[in-house]
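Hi W., the 2-acetamido-2-deoxy-beta-D-glucopyranose complex you wanted:
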Amino acid sequence: MASSLRHSANIALFLLFSLASAAQLDPNFYSCSCPNLFSTIKPVVQSAISKEKRMGASLLRLFFHDCFVNGCDGSLLLDDTPNFTGEKNAVPNNQSVRGFDVIDKIKAAVEKACPGVVSCADILAITARDSVVILGGPNWNVKLGRRDARTASLSAANTNIPPPTSNLSKLISSFSAQGLSAKHMVALSGAHTIGQARCTIFRARIYNDSNIDSSFDQLRKSNCPQSSGDANLAPLDLQTPTSFDNNYYKNLLSLKGLLHSDQQLFNKGSTDSQVRKYANKPNKFNSDFVAAIIKMGDISPLTGSKGEIRKNCRKIN
Ligand code: HEM
Ligand SMILES: *[C@@H]1O[C@H](CO)[C@@H](O)[C@H](O)[C@H]1NC(C)=O
Ligand SMILES: *[C@@H]1O[C@H](CO)[C@@H](O)[C@H](O)[C@H]1NC(C)=O
Ligand SMILES: *[C@@H]1O[C@H](CO)[C@@H](O)[C@H](O)[C@H]1NC(C)=O
Ligand SMILES: *[C@@H]1O[C@H](CO)[C@@H](O)[C@H](O)[C@H]1NC(C)=O
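Structure:
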Protein backbone atom coordinates (compact mmCIF):
# COMPACT_ATOMS: atom_id res chain seq x y z
CA MET A 1 0.00 0.00 0.00
CA ALA A 2 2.67 2.45 1.10
CA SER A 3 4.88 1.32 -1.77
CA SER A 4 2.10 1.74 -4.36
CA LEU A 5 1.34 5.21 -3.00
CA ARG A 6 5.01 6.07 -3.27
CA HIS A 7 4.97 4.61 -6.78
CA SER A 8 2.07 6.87 -7.88
CA ALA A 9 3.76 9.83 -6.27
CA ASN A 10 6.86 9.07 -8.28
CA ILE A 11 4.85 8.83 -11.48
CA ALA A 12 3.16 12.16 -10.69
CA LEU A 13 6.52 13.76 -10.02
CA PHE A 14 7.94 12.30 -13.20
CA LEU A 15 5.00 13.63 -15.24
CA LEU A 16 5.29 17.06 -13.65
CA PHE A 17 9.00 17.11 -14.35
CA SER A 18 8.63 16.08 -17.99
CA LEU A 19 5.85 18.63 -18.56
CA ALA A 20 8.01 21.34 -17.04
CA SER A 21 11.08 20.36 -19.04
CA ALA A 22 9.10 20.09 -22.29
CA ALA A 23 8.20 23.77 -21.97
CA GLN A 24 11.72 24.85 -21.02
CA LEU A 25 14.53 25.92 -23.25
CA ASP A 26 17.99 24.58 -22.50
CA PRO A 27 21.47 25.69 -23.63
CA ASN A 28 22.40 22.00 -24.13
CA PHE A 29 19.35 21.16 -26.23
CA TYR A 30 21.42 20.20 -29.30
CA SER A 31 24.54 18.92 -27.55
CA CYS A 32 23.88 15.34 -28.73
CA SER A 33 21.85 15.99 -31.90
CA CYS A 34 24.13 18.73 -33.29
CA PRO A 35 27.36 18.89 -31.28
CA ASN A 36 29.10 21.30 -33.68
CA LEU A 37 26.21 23.75 -33.92
CA PHE A 38 28.00 26.78 -32.44
CA SER A 39 31.19 26.25 -34.40
CA THR A 40 29.12 25.88 -37.57
CA ILE A 41 27.26 29.17 -37.08
CA LYS A 42 29.90 31.55 -35.74
CA PRO A 43 32.24 31.63 -38.78
CA VAL A 44 29.32 32.46 -41.07
CA VAL A 45 28.32 35.36 -38.81
CA GLN A 46 31.96 36.45 -38.58
CA SER A 47 32.38 36.44 -42.33
CA ALA A 48 29.16 38.41 -42.90
CA ILE A 49 30.27 41.05 -40.37
CA SER A 50 33.78 41.19 -41.86
CA LYS A 51 32.18 41.93 -45.22
CA GLU A 52 29.88 44.57 -43.75
CA LYS A 53 30.19 45.75 -40.14
CA ARG A 54 26.57 46.89 -39.98
CA MET A 55 25.37 43.31 -40.49
CA GLY A 56 25.92 42.49 -36.82
CA ALA A 57 23.33 45.11 -35.91
CA SER A 58 20.90 43.91 -38.55
CA LEU A 59 21.14 40.31 -37.30
CA LEU A 60 20.60 41.34 -33.66
CA ARG A 61 17.49 43.27 -34.66
CA LEU A 62 15.98 40.24 -36.44
CA PHE A 63 15.79 38.40 -33.11
CA PHE A 64 13.86 41.30 -31.50
CA HIS A 65 11.40 41.59 -34.39
CA ASP A 66 10.85 37.82 -34.34
CA CYS A 67 10.31 37.50 -30.58
CA PHE A 68 7.83 40.40 -30.28
CA VAL A 69 5.40 38.79 -32.74
CA ASN A 70 3.78 35.71 -31.16
CA GLY A 71 7.06 34.59 -29.63
CA CYS A 72 10.52 33.63 -30.85
CA ASP A 73 9.32 31.23 -33.51
CA GLY A 74 11.05 32.23 -36.75
CA SER A 75 7.81 33.73 -38.11
CA LEU A 76 9.67 36.86 -39.29
CA LEU A 77 11.72 34.78 -41.73
CA LEU A 78 8.78 33.50 -43.81
CA ASP A 79 8.49 35.02 -47.27
CA ASP A 80 5.22 36.31 -48.66
CA THR A 81 3.69 34.19 -51.43
CA PRO A 82 0.45 34.59 -53.40
CA ASN A 83 -1.36 32.56 -50.75
CA PHE A 84 0.67 33.39 -47.64
CA THR A 85 1.09 36.75 -45.93
CA GLY A 86 4.19 36.98 -43.78
CA GLU A 87 5.60 39.77 -41.60
CA LYS A 88 8.26 41.19 -43.88
CA ASN A 89 5.99 43.92 -45.23
CA ALA A 90 4.75 45.08 -41.84
CA VAL A 91 5.49 48.77 -41.24
CA PRO A 92 8.38 48.19 -38.77
CA ASN A 93 9.98 45.66 -41.15
CA ASN A 94 9.35 46.92 -44.69
CA GLN A 95 12.50 48.42 -46.29
CA SER A 96 14.09 48.15 -42.88
CA VAL A 97 14.93 44.66 -41.57
CA ARG A 98 17.82 43.00 -43.36
CA GLY A 99 20.16 40.03 -43.12
CA PHE A 100 17.85 37.31 -44.44
CA ASP A 101 20.51 36.18 -46.93
CA VAL A 102 22.94 35.66 -44.03
CA ILE A 103 20.34 33.57 -42.17
CA ASP A 104 19.95 31.48 -45.36
CA LYS A 105 23.71 30.87 -45.43
CA ILE A 106 23.73 29.86 -41.77
CA LYS A 107 20.75 27.55 -42.24
CA ALA A 108 22.44 25.89 -45.23
CA ALA A 109 25.62 25.28 -43.19
CA VAL A 110 23.59 23.95 -40.24
CA GLU A 111 21.49 21.66 -42.47
CA LYS A 112 24.68 20.25 -43.93
CA ALA A 113 26.05 19.49 -40.45
CA CYS A 114 22.79 18.29 -38.83
CA PRO A 115 19.94 17.85 -41.31
CA GLY A 116 16.42 18.53 -40.04
CA VAL A 117 17.45 19.14 -36.44
CA VAL A 118 17.92 22.86 -35.69
CA SER A 119 15.08 25.41 -35.88
CA CYS A 120 15.34 28.75 -37.63
CA ALA A 121 14.05 30.35 -34.40
CA ASP A 122 17.10 29.01 -32.52
CA ILE A 123 19.40 30.12 -35.34
CA LEU A 124 18.14 33.70 -34.82
CA ALA A 125 18.88 33.46 -31.08
CA ILE A 126 22.43 32.15 -31.59
CA THR A 127 23.15 34.61 -34.40
CA ALA A 128 22.06 37.55 -32.21
CA ARG A 129 24.46 36.42 -29.45
CA ASP A 130 27.35 35.85 -31.88
CA SER A 131 26.83 39.31 -33.40
CA VAL A 132 26.99 41.02 -30.01
CA VAL A 133 30.14 39.10 -29.05
CA ILE A 134 31.88 39.77 -32.38
CA LEU A 135 31.20 43.52 -32.00
CA GLY A 136 32.79 43.54 -28.54
CA GLY A 137 29.75 43.01 -26.30
CA PRO A 138 29.06 40.48 -23.56
CA ASN A 139 28.72 36.71 -24.07
CA TRP A 140 25.96 34.47 -22.73
CA ASN A 141 24.67 30.92 -22.98
CA VAL A 142 21.78 30.85 -25.44
CA LYS A 143 18.79 28.79 -24.35
CA LEU A 144 17.62 26.49 -27.15
CA GLY A 145 14.85 24.12 -28.18
CA ARG A 146 12.48 26.53 -29.91
CA ARG A 147 10.58 25.19 -32.91
CA ASP A 148 9.43 27.07 -36.01
CA ALA A 149 5.97 28.47 -36.56
CA ARG A 150 3.80 27.40 -39.46
CA THR A 151 2.07 30.78 -39.31
CA ALA A 152 2.96 34.47 -39.26
CA SER A 153 1.05 37.62 -38.35
CA LEU A 154 1.33 40.86 -40.28
CA SER A 155 -1.13 42.54 -37.94
CA ALA A 156 0.70 41.45 -34.76
CA ALA A 157 3.96 42.72 -36.28
CA ASN A 158 2.32 46.10 -36.85
CA THR A 159 0.80 46.21 -33.37
CA ASN A 160 3.52 44.70 -31.16
CA ILE A 161 6.77 46.25 -32.40
CA PRO A 162 6.85 49.79 -30.99
CA PRO A 163 7.33 52.64 -33.49
CA PRO A 164 10.13 55.24 -33.15
CA THR A 165 7.50 57.91 -32.46
CA SER A 166 6.64 56.17 -29.15
CA ASN A 167 6.66 58.10 -25.89
CA LEU A 168 7.99 56.50 -22.69
CA SER A 169 4.64 55.11 -21.56
CA LYS A 170 4.07 53.49 -24.96
CA LEU A 171 7.57 51.91 -24.85
CA ILE A 172 6.92 50.55 -21.36
CA SER A 173 3.51 49.16 -22.32
CA SER A 174 4.81 47.53 -25.53
CA PHE A 175 7.43 45.62 -23.55
CA SER A 176 5.06 44.86 -20.72
CA ALA A 177 2.72 43.24 -23.27
CA GLN A 178 5.58 40.75 -23.89
CA GLY A 179 6.18 40.13 -20.18
CA LEU A 180 9.21 42.42 -20.08
CA SER A 181 9.65 45.14 -17.46
CA ALA A 182 10.57 48.81 -17.95
CA LYS A 183 14.02 47.86 -16.69
CA HIS A 184 14.33 45.16 -19.37
CA MET A 185 13.18 47.73 -21.94
CA VAL A 186 15.88 50.23 -21.00
CA ALA A 187 18.60 47.54 -20.99
CA LEU A 188 17.49 46.06 -24.36
CA SER A 189 17.39 49.55 -25.90
CA GLY A 190 21.17 49.55 -25.48
CA ALA A 191 21.15 47.45 -28.68
CA HIS A 192 20.97 50.87 -30.37
CA THR A 193 24.68 51.17 -29.59
CA ILE A 194 25.11 49.57 -33.03
CA GLY A 195 23.45 49.98 -36.41
CA GLN A 196 21.85 52.64 -38.54
CA ALA A 197 18.49 54.31 -39.06
CA ARG A 198 16.94 56.03 -42.06
CA CYS A 199 16.24 59.73 -42.34
CA THR A 200 12.50 59.05 -42.75
CA ILE A 201 12.60 57.46 -39.27
CA PHE A 202 14.38 60.31 -37.42
CA ARG A 203 13.27 63.37 -39.47
CA ALA A 204 10.49 64.37 -37.10
CA ARG A 205 12.94 64.17 -34.18
CA ILE A 206 15.57 66.46 -35.70
CA TYR A 207 13.08 69.00 -37.09
CA ASN A 208 10.49 69.01 -34.31
CA ASP A 209 11.90 67.82 -30.98
CA SER A 210 13.40 70.36 -28.57
CA ASN A 211 15.17 67.89 -26.25
CA ILE A 212 18.08 67.58 -28.69
CA ASP A 213 21.67 68.85 -28.68
CA SER A 214 21.91 71.67 -31.23
CA SER A 215 25.21 70.73 -32.87
CA PHE A 216 24.07 67.10 -33.15
CA ASP A 217 20.81 68.38 -34.64
CA GLN A 218 22.67 70.43 -37.28
CA LEU A 219 24.89 67.48 -38.14
CA ARG A 220 21.93 65.15 -38.70
CA LYS A 221 19.95 67.75 -40.69
CA SER A 222 22.91 68.06 -43.08
CA ASN A 223 22.19 64.58 -44.44
CA CYS A 224 18.44 64.46 -43.82
CA PRO A 225 16.60 67.28 -45.60
CA GLN A 226 12.99 68.21 -44.75
CA SER A 227 11.56 66.70 -47.90
CA SER A 228 14.06 64.39 -49.55
CA GLY A 229 16.68 61.77 -48.69
CA ASP A 230 14.27 59.40 -46.93
CA ALA A 231 16.70 56.48 -47.21
CA ASN A 232 19.82 58.36 -46.05
CA LEU A 233 21.40 56.60 -43.09
CA ALA A 234 22.76 57.86 -39.78
CA PRO A 235 24.28 55.82 -36.94
CA LEU A 236 22.12 55.14 -33.88
CA ASP A 237 25.29 55.69 -31.78
CA LEU A 238 27.23 58.59 -33.26
CA GLN A 239 30.43 57.68 -31.39
CA THR A 240 31.05 53.96 -32.02
CA PRO A 241 28.35 52.57 -34.35
CA THR A 242 30.04 49.20 -34.84
CA SER A 243 31.07 48.55 -31.23
CA PHE A 244 28.71 47.06 -28.70
CA ASP A 245 29.37 49.36 -25.72
CA ASN A 246 27.48 51.74 -23.41
CA ASN A 247 27.93 54.89 -25.52
CA TYR A 248 24.23 54.78 -26.41
CA TYR A 249 23.44 55.84 -22.84
CA LYS A 250 26.16 58.49 -22.76
CA ASN A 251 24.62 59.97 -25.91
CA LEU A 252 21.23 60.13 -24.20
CA LEU A 253 22.77 62.10 -21.28
CA SER A 254 23.98 64.70 -23.81
CA LEU A 255 20.64 64.75 -25.70
CA LYS A 256 22.13 63.01 -28.73
CA GLY A 257 19.67 60.13 -29.05
CA LEU A 258 18.89 59.64 -32.75
CA LEU A 259 15.31 58.40 -32.45
CA HIS A 260 12.52 60.22 -30.64
CA SER A 261 11.93 56.94 -28.76
CA ASP A 262 15.62 56.75 -27.73
CA GLN A 263 15.60 60.18 -26.07
CA GLN A 264 12.37 59.28 -24.27
CA LEU A 265 14.48 57.08 -21.96
CA PHE A 266 16.25 60.21 -20.67
CA ASN A 267 13.69 62.99 -20.68
CA LYS A 268 13.10 63.82 -17.00
CA GLY A 269 11.11 60.64 -16.48
CA SER A 270 11.15 57.42 -14.48
CA THR A 271 13.96 55.80 -16.51
CA ASP A 272 16.52 58.66 -16.23
CA SER A 273 18.30 57.06 -13.28
CA GLN A 274 18.77 53.74 -15.10
CA VAL A 275 20.21 55.55 -18.15
CA ARG A 276 22.67 57.39 -15.86
CA LYS A 277 23.65 54.13 -14.23
CA TYR A 278 24.40 52.39 -17.55
CA ALA A 279 26.32 55.43 -18.82
CA ASN A 280 28.57 55.20 -15.77
CA LYS A 281 28.76 51.43 -15.29
CA PRO A 282 29.40 49.50 -18.51
CA ASN A 283 29.57 46.19 -16.64
CA LYS A 284 26.16 46.78 -15.11
CA PHE A 285 24.78 47.50 -18.58
CA ASN A 286 26.36 44.30 -19.94
CA SER A 287 24.94 42.07 -17.23
CA ASP A 288 21.47 43.64 -17.38
CA PHE A 289 21.47 43.42 -21.19
CA VAL A 290 22.31 39.72 -21.00
CA ALA A 291 19.56 39.01 -18.46
CA ALA A 292 17.06 40.96 -20.56
CA ILE A 293 17.89 39.34 -23.90
CA ILE A 294 17.68 35.87 -22.32
CA LYS A 295 14.26 36.85 -20.98
CA MET A 296 13.24 38.15 -24.42
CA GLY A 297 14.34 34.80 -25.92
CA ASP A 298 11.91 33.04 -23.59
CA ILE A 299 8.84 34.73 -25.10
CA SER A 300 6.27 32.04 -26.02
CA PRO A 301 8.52 29.45 -27.65
CA LEU A 302 7.00 26.54 -29.54
CA THR A 303 8.41 23.39 -27.90
CA GLY A 304 7.84 19.64 -27.83
CA SER A 305 5.77 18.64 -30.84
CA LYS A 306 4.41 22.14 -31.58
CA GLY A 307 5.46 23.79 -34.83
CA GLU A 308 8.15 22.19 -36.96
CA ILE A 309 11.84 22.28 -37.84
CA ARG A 310 11.79 24.20 -41.11
CA LYS A 311 14.05 22.95 -43.91
CA ASN A 312 14.23 26.41 -45.45
CA CYS A 313 13.77 29.37 -43.12
CA ARG A 314 11.78 31.26 -45.78
CA LYS A 315 8.93 28.75 -46.07
CA ILE A 316 6.95 26.26 -44.07
CA ASN A 317 7.72 22.60 -44.82
C1 HEM B 1 12.62 50.18 -27.40
C2 HEM B 1 11.92 50.19 -28.54
C3 HEM B 1 12.57 50.17 -29.89
C4 HEM B 1 12.23 50.97 -30.93
C5 HEM B 1 11.14 52.03 -30.95
C6 HEM B 1 13.12 50.65 -32.00
C7 HEM B 1 13.09 51.24 -33.26
C8 HEM B 1 14.07 51.10 -34.23
C9 HEM B 1 14.09 51.79 -35.49
C10 HEM B 1 12.99 52.72 -35.98
C11 HEM B 1 15.23 51.45 -36.13
C12 HEM B 1 15.72 51.98 -37.49
C13 HEM B 1 14.92 51.38 -38.61
C14 HEM B 1 15.18 51.99 -39.97
O1 HEM B 1 15.67 53.11 -40.06
O2 HEM B 1 14.89 51.32 -40.95
C15 HEM B 1 15.93 50.53 -35.29
C16 HEM B 1 17.14 49.96 -35.58
C17 HEM B 1 17.73 48.99 -34.82
N1 HEM B 1 17.18 48.39 -33.70
FE1 HEM B 1 15.62 49.04 -32.64
N2 HEM B 1 13.98 49.67 -31.60
C18 HEM B 1 13.67 49.33 -30.32
C19 HEM B 1 14.26 48.33 -29.58
C20 HEM B 1 15.25 47.50 -30.05
C21 HEM B 1 15.68 46.28 -29.41
C22 HEM B 1 15.07 45.71 -28.13
C23 HEM B 1 16.69 45.77 -30.17
C24 HEM B 1 17.48 44.51 -29.98
C25 HEM B 1 17.64 43.91 -28.82
C26 HEM B 1 16.89 46.68 -31.27
C27 HEM B 1 17.88 46.58 -32.21
C28 HEM B 1 18.07 47.46 -33.26
C29 HEM B 1 19.26 47.48 -34.08
C30 HEM B 1 20.51 46.65 -33.85
C31 HEM B 1 19.05 48.43 -35.09
C32 HEM B 1 19.98 48.78 -36.27
C33 HEM B 1 19.71 47.79 -37.38
C34 HEM B 1 20.54 47.95 -38.63
O3 HEM B 1 21.45 48.78 -38.70
O4 HEM B 1 20.26 47.21 -39.60
N3 HEM B 1 15.97 47.69 -31.18
N4 HEM B 1 15.19 50.31 -34.15
C1 LIG C 1 -0.13 27.95 -52.29
O1 LIG C 1 -0.48 27.73 -53.61
C2 LIG C 1 0.36 26.81 -54.27
C3 LIG C 1 -0.02 26.81 -55.73
O2 LIG C 1 -1.42 26.84 -55.86
C4 LIG C 1 0.24 25.45 -53.60
O3 LIG C 1 1.09 24.53 -54.25
C5 LIG C 1 0.65 25.57 -52.16
O4 LIG C 1 0.47 24.36 -51.46
C6 LIG C 1 -0.16 26.66 -51.48
N1 LIG C 1 0.42 26.88 -50.18
C7 LIG C 1 -0.31 27.00 -49.09
C8 LIG C 1 0.43 27.31 -47.83
O5 LIG C 1 -1.52 26.90 -49.10
C1 LIG D 1 7.05 48.92 -48.56
O1 LIG D 1 7.91 49.97 -48.94
C2 LIG D 1 7.88 50.26 -50.32
C3 LIG D 1 8.92 51.34 -50.60
O2 LIG D 1 8.75 52.43 -49.74
C4 LIG D 1 6.49 50.72 -50.73
O3 LIG D 1 6.44 50.95 -52.12
C5 LIG D 1 5.49 49.61 -50.36
O4 LIG D 1 4.19 50.06 -50.62
C6 LIG D 1 5.63 49.24 -48.89
N1 LIG D 1 4.79 48.11 -48.62
C7 LIG D 1 3.87 48.13 -47.70
C8 LIG D 1 3.08 46.89 -47.54
O5 LIG D 1 3.65 49.11 -47.01
C1 LIG E 1 1.86 58.44 -25.21
O1 LIG E 1 1.45 57.99 -26.47
C2 LIG E 1 0.17 57.38 -26.50
C3 LIG E 1 -0.08 56.90 -27.92
O2 LIG E 1 0.89 56.04 -28.33
C4 LIG E 1 -0.89 58.38 -26.06
O3 LIG E 1 -2.14 57.74 -26.03
C5 LIG E 1 -0.55 58.90 -24.70
O4 LIG E 1 -1.45 59.93 -24.36
C6 LIG E 1 0.87 59.46 -24.66
N1 LIG E 1 1.21 59.76 -23.28
C7 LIG E 1 1.81 60.88 -22.93
C8 LIG E 1 2.12 61.02 -21.49
O5 LIG E 1 2.09 61.75 -23.73
C1 LIG F 1 6.64 68.83 -37.31
O1 LIG F 1 5.44 69.18 -36.66
C2 LIG F 1 4.52 69.85 -37.50
C3 LIG F 1 3.37 70.33 -36.65
O2 LIG F 1 2.85 69.24 -35.89
C4 LIG F 1 4.08 68.92 -38.63
O3 LIG F 1 3.18 69.55 -39.49
C5 LIG F 1 5.31 68.50 -39.41
O4 LIG F 1 4.95 67.54 -40.39
C6 LIG F 1 6.35 67.91 -38.48
N1 LIG F 1 7.59 67.71 -39.22
C7 LIG F 1 8.11 66.53 -39.43
C8 LIG F 1 9.39 66.49 -40.20
O5 LIG F 1 7.60 65.50 -39.01
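The longest strand covers residues 196-198.

W.
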